[in-house]
Write a structure and sequence with these properties.
Number of helices: 3
Radius of gyration: 23 Å
Helix content: 40-55%
Largest sheet: 2 strands, antiparallel
Number of domains: 1
Distance between the termini: 57 Å
Shape: rod-shaped
Order of helices and strands: EEHEHEH
Number of strands: 4
Amino acid sequence: MIKKCKICGKEFNAKYNHLCCSEMCSKENERLLVNKAHMKYFNEVSGKLKDIKLRSGCMVCGYNKTSRALSFHHLKDKKIRLSGSRGSKKDIFEEVKKCIILCCNCHMELHEGLIDLDNITGKRV
């Protein structure tokens, strides 16, 4: 049976149910599938994190216009970094529970010592 390679488009004689004409094209096809699965996972997790940020808003001033201006501030024992994290969903959302949401300005003021965490009367994530 003559088939067209999924990667390079070259026609080849497929004795079995192959999608690609060569080992090199097969490896490229596998790499693309892995990248596609990773991007789907990343987009799903990052979408949920954005929703959490916008729903909660800044715990100090209440800002919630864009998730890009909001960040997770760890209150205790940071195990993984949340931005660009590659951990499991369980690990990521367990980490979120240790955080409060702060806008860029309030986050920097907190790190400068201008805001006292004891005075923040917002809910945790």
